[in-house]
Fold this sequence. Notes:
There is one protein chain. The protein is of the alpha/beta class. The protein has 17 helices and nine strands. The protein has helices at residues 34-49, 73-83, 95-112, 129-135, 163-167, 174-181, 187-193, 205-213, 222-239, 249-252, 254-261, 266-274, 281-292, 295-307, 313-329, 331-342, 360-364; strands spanning 5-11, 17-23, 53-60, 65-67, 118-122, 125-127, 139-142, 147-149, 198-199. The strands form two sheets. A six-stranded mixed beta sheet has the order 1-2-3-5-7-9, sandwiched between helices. It has a three-stranded parallel beta sheet with strand order 4-6-8. Helix 2 (73-83) crosses helix 16 (331-342). The longest helix is centred in the first third of the chain and has 18 residues, at 95-112. The radius of gyration is 21 Å and the shape is globular. The mean pLDDT is 97.
Amino acid sequence: MTQPVLFEELTASNGRRIGVATLASEKTLHAISLEMVNLLTPQLRKWQADPGVALVILQAQGEKAFCAGGDLQQLYRTMREHHASPERGDIRGNRYAAEFFEHEYRLDYLIHTFGKPILCWGHGIVMGGGIGLMAGCSHRVATEKSRLAMPEITIGLYPDVGGSWFLSRMPGKTGVFLALTGALLNAKDAVFAGLADYCIAQASKQSVIDALLAQPWGGDDDAQLLERTLAEAQAASLDDGAVAFAPSNLRSHFDQIEALCRQPTLPEIVDGILSIQTDDAWLQKAIATLRAGSPGSAWLGYALQKRVRHLSLAEVFRLEFVVSLHCAARPDFVEGVRALIIEKDQKPKWQPATLAEATPAWVEGFFDDPWKKEEHPLADLGA
């Protein structure tokens, strides 16, 4: 059976090597599983410690997706079991969920803090856990077919994998809008939002790799060599009349998003978005996603972006770990996965059913941390 992540090393003309990690689970659109995480983490650490490796490329097989999110099948089963067990009141009781989120967040943090350039080729669908992989890479490419989103509100979760951190750092209040609506981003949207750095045609990928193999790697300017190569490829792609990069919806609607999402309370923001009258298909889809999504998820995503403003990345991952386990122990996450992925009836029954039913105490309960500081499973991040 083929491993869900494949590794190889390419040798540049001066003998330095480029590590290549390829997600290889096309049937699941490369949804990130615990097995994939546990393959990627030690290999990235090995490449980081190897002085002969100049940079790393993170990519995926096929044309449909880089990574469509997290593999939720096993997580769903363990949530169901935990909810039916005597341990259901203890968020630490779902041991699989704790292991999954801990290992996934450790990998994401490793990518964010990696000591060498990492190029992510984010072609096709990049959602949820896929953005968790891509967002932390030092150099991120989006193609004309890239479609990025953080649609966790549709499954009763919230934008995790560091989403609280990078959404809160997007231009204006666009991060709040994206958390609430799961709005789809194209390549130019991704660059505007800070989730990608370059727009490059998918057809140029092999020529980019060929150009990388010709670079004189091994000096202090490896990141600059990579930047020049990617900038040249971007210029060629944008000048190529055969490749069309759609304009940024996020940029064109920026003023409207600002006016809506700078309202002083979440209910005012949500009411404002839901009351938009528009023929714009992108906005219509965003509005529909918010309307159908979990009110509890809306509260969580909003509360987290406010809470993390002055936290370090490591502190954000520690906070998200606790919140994610609370989500796994409560009704909405398992219900959202059931309705959208398992039974596919598209009729989740959210608890609470409305924003008004989510009291401040209910929201605050997601931040209850059962670990002492030194016992937290991610206590060593940033140490």
